[in-house]
Amino acid sequence: xxxxxxxxxxxxxxxxxxxxxxxxxxxxxxxxxxxxxxxxxxxxxxxxxxxxxxxxxxxxxxxxxxxxxxxxxxxxxxxxxxxxxxxxxxxxxxxxxxxxxxxxxxxxxxxxxxxxxxxxxxxxxxxxxxxxxxxxxxxxxxxxxxxxxxxxxxxxxxxxxxxxxxxxxxxxxxxxxxxxxxxxxxxxxxxxxxxxxxxxxxxxxxxxxxxxxxxxxxxxxxxxxxxxxxxxxxxxxxxxxxxxxxxxxxxxxxxxxxxxxxxxxxxxxxxxxxxxxxxxxxxxxxxxxxxxxxxxxxxxxxxxxxxxxxxxxxxxxxxxxxxxxxxxxxxxxxxxxxxxxxxxxxxxxxxxxxxxxxxxxxxxxxxxxxxxxxxxxxxxxxxxxxxxxxxxxxxxxxxxxxxxxxxxxxxxxxxxxxxxxxxxxxxxxxxxx
Length: 433
Hints:
Blueprint: E1 21-22, E2 25-26, H1 28-32, E3 47-52, H2 71-74, E4 79-81, E5 88-90, H3 94-97, E6 103-109, H4 116-123, H5 138-145, E7 155-158, E8 175-176, H6 200-216, H7 218-221, H8 230-241, H9 244-249, H10 257-260, H11 267-281, E9 285-289, H12 299-324, E10 331-336, E11 340-341, E12 354-355, E13 359-364, E14 372-374, H13 392-402, E15 410-412, E16 418-420
Parallel strand pairs: 3-9, 3-10, 6-14, 7-8, 7-9
Antiparallel strand pairs: 1-2, 4-5, 6-13, 10-13, 11-12, 15-16
Helix pairs in contact: 6-8, 11-12
């Protein structure tokens, strides 16, 4: 899959490479050593799907249009009515307009980080970045707090993610699929699929050999913190690879053809289809990335012909698909980019530039009341209408709330420093009213 770049050269790349079953053993154990689930916390949602719109989507051309703004702000798109009276969104999001009742729009989200990397760190953790500390992404916290079935990874990224485990350590890093699925084809994830003629019997033989080696080197294990618990993680690797459930969870060709019709055939749509399948199987957190939103040039052409139809089909399919499977109430869906784009049009380049002071985020499922707009921007969408709006921290606190995770809970770094999951955020009560 091609790597896309934003204007500052930031790449979307795997932050963790997951090994295959090598000639000498189960290298997937290296991944599972880093992906152990943590404590149980009861909440309405049991899983989450995070849609990352890398590059920064324009709020004024998607979910916060201003049709009465002056020409230099308004843009080319018109608003259309949704299935919720009084709420309008972009004309190029017709499928989402017809399932507006299933999600909430948060307008007037505001921060001050206009660089892609810093903005991504902020919206993927709910904490403003610090040079002295790397906060864990949402998926790593969920992997620590919520248990997943033993044979499944708790945190999966399709195809990769900007979320990192931070000070929690690499045991909570994601399993990156490294690619997006294609319609009607079995989806092989390196390290889970049995490739090159390998059989479960062969895996079991190698597992027996590894147990013998682990016994021989047990004394060294006890002396090295990096090897602590290796037996347990190796067993989890074995459980995953030999589990039919784990392999079939990633295989979208097993899905009912009528269900697959909810989704388009592009990579993002098929990734959304896979996300529904993974949470149905028991995976606790899935990220799906849709890039290409860094529209300094040709903003309206790019949005109209590529980004908006793709998002419209994939996200609407995701929401309807989760509802059809009876999973929408127990799965939180979180959609965001790193910032919005300048309300005032860059006429020279026919685009909009970086603008963190006013943006949108979307939430659905997990007790979120759909069919509403929370927050408001001013007449030209340059700032929150009340001058304050909501911070990414507030949305993060609300997201964790849907999962029964106390965002004030403290973790400790390797040096013993206490760190709250989200230090400055507050739950937005209107989302649950």
